UniProtKB/TrEMBL annotation:
GO biological process: lactate metabolic process
Keywords annotated in UniProt: 4Fe-4S, Electron transport, Iron, Iron-sulfur, Metal-binding, Repeat, Transport
UniProt name for this protein: Iron-sulfur binding protein
Transmembrane segments: none
Annotated ranges, domain 4Fe-4S ferredoxin-type: 301-331
Molecular-function annotations in GO: 4 iron, 4 sulfur cluster binding; metal ion binding
Coiled coil: none
PANTHER family in the record: LACTATE UTILIZATION PROTEIN B (PTHR47153)
Alphabetized Gene3D superfamilies for the sequence: Alpha-helical ferredoxin, NagB/RpiA/CoA transferase-like
Xref: Pfam families: Fer4_8, LUD_dom, LutB_C
Length: 468
């Protein structure tokens, strides 16, 4: 997938004026946030679990080579095979090699962000294979020929009417208008694909070093059908997803669903260990795990190591005001929101994703809800600093920052300018808002600017203290 993150501003403007997108985002935003809040309130030990998860993840990252070797040994002992991929191209070649060897014609896929990251679907299709996404959200966007806009709800940007249009065009027959009807129609269409599949590909929410197991969590059961009915099961995962034991995995499972969808637990939690055994009723004949590095080792050795704690719950984007306004496609790659604004520049390059670290208000909500306490605002500030060091920052922006720094280091001048600006903006306001403002069209073209009260914060604070 060609990265288009440098089009963030243009795509954001389009997104803000897309009525269907704004309707869909509005419904999703309050659902995710509200449900998470209820689950957290009902679990008194939630903060303790976050701290334990952070500590355990840090321990794994400190000993990642050890746990990956243990995992490979356990997978091999269970009859499976682990493949190591340095980058996206190598991962694609490994998976293509497996599919070609078994003569695969139909490949079903459970939800896997790593497969999106390595641009797997196009590679399989270009080699003559039918690729079928079985997660309902992924299936919808596959019909729309679009990338996912959210890591746990890929079609969150689609309204019910848009999905109805897609299904009518793809499946024929009478148009379905109710959600249960649409779900039943997708289930009917996909059922045949599961039984025809030669290869099933899933992600891996967690990889267990103790047993060589892969764990996936879903709400639809599509992952189970994908990995048990095909002759070959391939797991795609980043190297950072390994955990020491099954007990350790349960710690993260308690945090994942609550943070992601506001559920106590997902409907299906499935543990797979190796290929089908002689006395198994079903299961694949071959079991492969493709462990993808793709820049993760570089992160592990550097100042962005904390990002490797991410368990891909999506809580940061659910609570992000920027994501909530523009959706996921504006970010230009597979990982949107705050976590994507860190990951994309690190994987694809600071210059290729210049806008993303700067598309943040640094309000800190993402860090406050992250189940493994990743300091996302700090990482975004660090990326901005690196961009400045590498002379990627546009010249006019650097000049403006230098002017601001010169003024900010002179407190008397700074406060004097603040006072003038506060009074001038207050005078320009109508009913507490400013409709148009020179040099601020990026804001006032799409919304009103709340006007200041005519005095600076320092003046208001001093006045309040004087009253007391």
């Amino acid at each position: 997938m060609q990265i288009r993150s440098n089009e963030f501003k243009e795509r954001s403007v389009f997104a803000i004026h897309d009525a269907n997108l704004q309707t869909a985002l509005g419904r999703a935003r309050y659902g995710f946030v509200g449900k998470r809040a209820l689950q957290v309130a009902e679990l008194p030990e939630f903060e303790q679990l976050r701290e334990e998860a952070k500590s355990l993840k840090n321990h794994v990252l400190d000993n990642l080579d050890h746990y990956l070797e243990r995992y490979e040994q356990a997978v091999t002992a269970a009859g499976g095979r682990v493949h190591w991929a340095r980058d996206a191209a190598e991962a694609r070649e490994i998976i293509l090699g497996i599919c070609k060897r078994v003569g695969a014609r139909t490949v079903t896929k459970g939800k896997s962000m790593v497969s999106e990251e390595i641009d797997l679907n196009d590679a399989l299709i270009d080699n003559g294979m039918e690729v079928v996404e079985t997660d309902l959200g992924e299936y919808i966007i596959q019909l729309a020929h679009e990338p996912p806009s959210h890591i746990i709800a890929p079609a969150v940007h689609k309204t019910k009417d848009q999905v109805s249009d897609l299904f009518e065009a793809a499946h024929g027959g009478p148009r379905k208008t109710q959600i249960p009807e649409l779900v039943d129609e997708a289930r009917r269409v996909l059922r045949d694909k599961y039984f025809r599949a030669d290869v099933g590909i899933t992600g891996g929410n967690f990889l267990v070093a103790e047993t060589g197991s892969s764990i996936i969590v879903t709400n639809e059961g599509n992952g189970d059908l994908t990995q048990t009915l095909a002759k070959v099961h391939i797991v795609t995962s980043g190297i950072e997803r390994v955990v020491p034991t099954l007990d350790d995995a349960t710690l993260f499972l308690r945090l994942l669903a609550r943070s992601a969808t506001g559920q106590e637990t997902e409907t299906y939690t499935t543990i797979s260990t190796g290929p089908r055994r002689a006395d198994d009723l079903d299961g694949p004949e071959e079991y492969h795990v493709v462990l993808v590095d793709n820049g993760r080792s570089k992160m592990l050795a550097g100042r962005f190591r904390d990002m490797l704690r991410c368990i891909r719950c999506g809580a940061c984007m659910n609570h992000c005001p920027v994501y909530g306004a523009v959706g996921g496609h504006a970010y230009g790659w597979v990982y949107p929101g705050p976590m994507g604004s860190v990951l994309t520049p690190l994987i694809k390059g600071l210059d290729a994703a210049y806008d993303l670290p700067n598309a943040c208000t640094l309000n800190g909500r993402c860090q406050s809800v992250c189940p493994v306490k990743i300091p996302l605002p700090e990482l975004l500030r660090e990326l901005r600093h690196l961009q400045h060091q590498q002379n990627i920052t546009p010249v006019m922006q650097k000049r403006a920052l230098n002017v601001w720094r010169w003024v900010a280091t002179r407190p008397k001048l700074y406060h004097a300018i603040e006072q003038v600006a506060a009074r001038a903006l207050s005078a320009l306001s109508r009913r507490g808002r400013i409709r148009r403002l020179p040099l601020a069209g990026g804001w006032t073209d799409s919304r009103d600017l709340p006007a200041p009260p005519g005095r600076t914060f320092l003046e208001l604070w001093q006045g309040k203290r004087g009253q007391k």
